[in-house]
Amino acid sequence: VPAGYCQIKKLYVDVKDMNLLVDETRLFKLVQIGSYNTSLQVTSNIQHPDIVQFVPPVVDIPGSDPPNATVEVTYDICAYGKSPGHSEVTFNVTPGGFVDMDTVFVRVTVMYSNAIYVISYIMGWIYFLAWSVSFYPQIYINFKRKSVVGLNFDFLALNIMGFAMYSLFNCGLYFSKDIQSEYFSRHPRSLNPVQLNDVFFSLHASFATLITITQCFLYERENQRVSVTGRCVLGGMAGVALVSASVAGAGKLAWLDFLNYCSYIKLCITLIKYVPQAYMNYKRKSTVGWSIGNIFLDFVGGSLSVLQMTLNAYNYNDWVSFFGDATKFGLGLFSLVFDIFFILQHYVFYRSSERSSSSSPKCIVGNNNQNKNHSASHSTSLRGACDAEFEFGTNGGLKTVINKVVLWIDFRERKDFMFDSSEEGSIRTTGDSEYCLVPTWNADEKKYDLEAKA
């Protein structure tokens, strides 16, 4: 085009995204800055004409003689929502070659109900908060018990790897202009899939998981460690990430592809990370040490996430995306299935072990003469000085469990204590006072110290 005719500095629409209700109309503007000495026609190309209609479909831009480089003219276009759904609208200029319209477009969303839209928006923030808070019940229970026994280390290792990969993906797409440019070149007219709340969640999840891992070094953990299988899985995933990063650093792979590989690793981890904890609970026949609060919050978040997807699919008549995004829907449903399984383990399968654990004493203090007179047929309870529960059986004795150490007290004979444990120790009596061995966890030597207490 001759330079003298190139007087239009800019031609654009004043809105990029538009939400409409069915049968609703809304005005937006096509803005022209500068003019040509010939008339132009701007035609709207609607991706799905059954969803939205533009009136007028063609805008005539008159020429100016002489051309004016500073004049600004606006043209009103009315958008009418015909049926729920999503549609992109681009524009063509005739004759061609005068104006580049590749970046001029409108994304239109037509919905049934604005109330459903608001409810869906609120649900999004609720499940964001539920998932963010879900890490802290486990941290609290570890702090309260001064122990991480019952928390599977494979689960923690997979979690920190997954959230690290997720953080790399989110931070890269949100902060790097080069990666954003690569993304938009592959997906023109699309939005950045990563928002600020995604960045916050992934970084916060990594931080909370690191706190839990730190507790594993400070509190009682017995002989727990990451399994050989877990190390192999993590090593393989770390190897994929490191090789991809090296190839990207050498310029043989786009950094966007590296971030995509990180997201695939996160998806794989989400599929398998609950398995070690569920299997550990099954082997122990107990969920002691595993926070059910974490599961409830995760269940709330997952349920609201799936419900939000369902509401959006109905509101936008977009069931293809609902079932087409098998990854998001499948992962959400998969997490809910594991949450339900953990709830069944806690409240149904291993409920008795939870109750016995919550009532097991820290130490035993009692006087033999006080308790001699209990008959063999009598069953009662005695609260000792350590706030411990004593239960008398039909044989006139008492059995209790302290940190897996079985103590048996027989009030019918002077041999008051029989000690059954793999630990070395002894029980003795002097007069009316009984002495028992109390296991105390030695964090430095990673073993129990057996201390005699009256």
Automatic annotation (TrEMBL):
Keyword annotations for this protein, in alphabetical order, are: Glycoprotein, Lysosome, Membrane, Repeat, Symport, Transmembrane, Transmembrane helix, Transport
Indicate how the chain sits in the lipid bilayer. Multi-pass membrane protein
**Keyword Lipoprotein belongs to the record:** no
Reactions catalysed: L-cystine(out) + H(+)(out) = L-cystine(in) + H(+)(in)
Q: Where are the transmembrane segments?
A: 115-136, 148-169, 232-252, 258-276, 288-309, 329-350
| Family membership | Belongs to the cystinosin family.
Q: Does the keyword Ribonucleoprotein apply?
A: no
Where in the cell?
A: Cytoplasmic vesicle, Phagosome; Lysosome membrane
Task: Tell me the function of this protein.
Answer: Cystine/H(+) symporter that mediates export of cystine, the oxidized dimer of cysteine, from lysosomes. May play a role in the degradation of engulfed apoptotic cells.
Name one cellular component (GO) term.
phagocytic vesicle
Q: Write down what this protein is called.
A: Cystinosin homolog
* NCBIfam families attached to this UniProt entry: 2A43
One example of the protein's molecular function in GO is: L-cystine transmembrane transporter activity
